[in-house]
Specification:
six-stranded antiparallel beta sheet; alpha+beta; 3 domains; 2-enoyl-CoA Hydratase, Chain A, domain 1; Pdz3 Domain; 18 helices
Length: 538
């Protein structure tokens, strides 16, 4: 009986196995997946066995993976294991190390700024300090990779650095205990005038909403009623963080973004929760052609709901959602699994073809006419599909977010651009802080606003800029220098302010010559009108 039962059972299992096999075969055979996997395996195996030279199979496989993803959209990419640690740090919002922003300048490791809350700041390491020795080895001539290798390390481990500081005869020695260091995504947050706040967000990482919420809350305690949110050159990041940011400005039940994929598990819809704390703030968002992905989700939702004004240049046009898949060797790849749409139904993704370089370049080669664009007449001759905001204004999909007011970015001429590329302004600012840092700090203390207003980069310093440029291969050009003079002195002053007050100091100086920002300030009354339109639609 047991034997007979076993035979029956075995027969059933065989049939079930055949059926299961048929299902699996059906699942894969539609795209002929298994034969193609076999083909690649055969080619790799035969190449490894018979090729005339030794074969690096890992290199070949990675090239094949890159080739495979290269046949898809421009945003499906392979991430080698060697790059995964940095990618993870950037989006998780922290790393382990000594906590400095640094620059290798003329073979010297320069502290640009200690990171707030890190161990270097706690020990008194300052912007402008030069690290000349790490443990028992010189740091002169160190590379970017060498800095990462020698200064980063597990939390709790120690490293000793010797520092040369302006105004001090002998080097200072610090024993630093490494710690977990936050990577901030809110670069700057401050009052630009009574009642008006400015916040710059450089990307959307795991901590962005928390940082943003803290920054706006602090500004509100200072009396902020109007906010300029700078998302220029913010290439995006986590969709969920973009949703949470917009959620702060909307009442409950409003669609912020939704996604659609070929497979339904990637379809999703994000509705505002009604718990937003900043629903009463007047809002302007700055974007440019480097604003992409999550930045476009924020700008698109605000524009579709007529919640605020969008100012600047048309954004990049990335409306594809990637999911990251980890591989066994520590590498990963990001695969586009869905498209995202703004509340009105706009797909923001620009058309793309096989020429990926052209696709990237096109976003930065648009010719746009400056001016008011509330009814979006700038796109009226476009073949892009039309949609309507909740207030009835026409907007367009398929090509990024076109602003309600188009204001072109300030453009540096070739002379100034070369000086900046060769770090001339940064180096001159460093020299000035070496010579006059103690004097300037004593004169201005914590008063960054007074520094912005009163400090003047003199003619002697302008001469130094020109001379250092010549030394670095940038021929003197008086006509172009005079044309861009405000930027020559502006960048130098901004780097000095950064040395004393971090990114806030840098931003405060640069905003003085920022035409897009100035236009945003002038349009705050118009943004209030838009906000009233939105209020009537709630």
């Amino acid at each position: 009986m047991r034997k007979r039962f076993s035979l029956v059972t075995m027969g059933v299992l065989v049939v079930l196995s055949m059926l299961a096999g048929a299902q699996l075969n059906s699942l894969f055979s539609g795209d002929s997946l298994l034969p193609q996997v076999g083909k690649f395996s055969d080619v790799l195996s035969i190449t490894y066995k018979y090729y005339v030279d030794d074969v690096d199979t890992q290199k070949l496989t990675e090239s094949a993976v890159n080739g495979l993803l290269g046949q898809l959209d421009p945003h499906s990419v392979y991430i080698p294991a060697s790059a995964m640690a940095r990618v993870t740090e950037d989006f998780q919002g922290s790393f382990e190390g000594i906590g400095i922003e640094y620059q290798v300048l003329n073979d010297t490791l320069l502290v640009v700024a200690p990171i707030v809350g890190g161990p270097s700041e706690a020990l008194g390491i300052m912007a402008g300090d030069k690290i000349v020795k790490i443990n028992d080895s010189t740091a002169v001539g160190i590379t970017q990779e060498g800095v990462q290798k020698r200064l980063r390390g597990p939390k709790g481990t120690k490293v000793t650095v010797s520092i040369v500081r302006s105004g001090m005869k002998d080097p200072l020695e610090f024993e630093i205990t490494r710690d977990k260091i936050p990577i901030y995504t809110v670069d700057a947050s401050f009052l630009v005038e009574p009642g008006v706040g400015y916040i710059n967000v450089n990307r959307f990482a795991a901590t962005t909403h928390e940082e943003f919420f803290t920054a706006v809350s602090s500004l509100r305690e200072q009396g902020v009623k109007k906010l300029i949110l700078d998302l220029r050159s913010n290439a995006g990041g986590y969709l969920e963080q973009a949703f949470r940011m917009v959620d702060e400005f909307l009442p409950g039940g409003k669609k912020i973004v939704y996604t659609k994929g070929r497979r339904t598990e990637f379809d999703d819809e994000f509705l505002s929760t009604g718990s937003g704390k900043f629903q009463g703030l007047t809002l302007i968002i700055l974007v440019n052609n480097g604003s992409a992905s999550a930045s476009e989700i924020v700008a698109g939702a605000v524009q579709d709901w007529d919640r605020g004004l969008i100012i600047g240049e048309t954004s990049f046009g990335k409306g594809l959602v990637q999911r990251q898949f980890e591989l066994k060797d520590g590498s990963a790849f990001r695969l586009t699994t869905a498209r995202y749409y703004t509340p009105s139904g706009r797909l923001i993704q620009r058309p793309y073809g096989e020429d990926k370089a052209k696709y990237q370049r096109e976003a930065f080669e648009r010719e746009e006419t400056e001016g008011e664009n509330l009814e979006h007449v700038a796109e009226k001759d476009s073949t892009r599909p039309k949609f309507k905001t909740m207030g009835g204004r026409i907007v367009y999909g398929g090509g990024g977010i076109t602003p309600d007011y188009i204001v072109k970015s300030d453009r540096l001429n070739s002379y100034t651009a070369q000086l900046r590329a060769k770090q001339v302004f940064f180096q001159i600012a460093d020299r000035m802080m070496d010579r006059r840092g103690a004097e300037i700090r004593a004169a201005y203390g914590k008063d960054v606003e007074r520094f912005v207003k009163d400090f003047v980069v003199d003619e002697a310093t302008v001469g130094e800029i020109i001379a250092l440029g010549v030394q670095k291969g940038v021929a003197e050009n008086k006509e172009l220098m005079d044309q861009d003079r405000r930027y020559l002195v502006g960048y130098t002053k901004a780097y000095m302010a950064r040395a004393m007050w971090g990114n806030e100091g840098y931003a405060r100086v640069m905003l003085q010559e920022d035409s897009q920002f100035k236009k945003a300030v002038s349009l705050l009354p118009e943004a209030e009108k838009i906000a009233r339109t939105f209020s009537s639609l709630k």
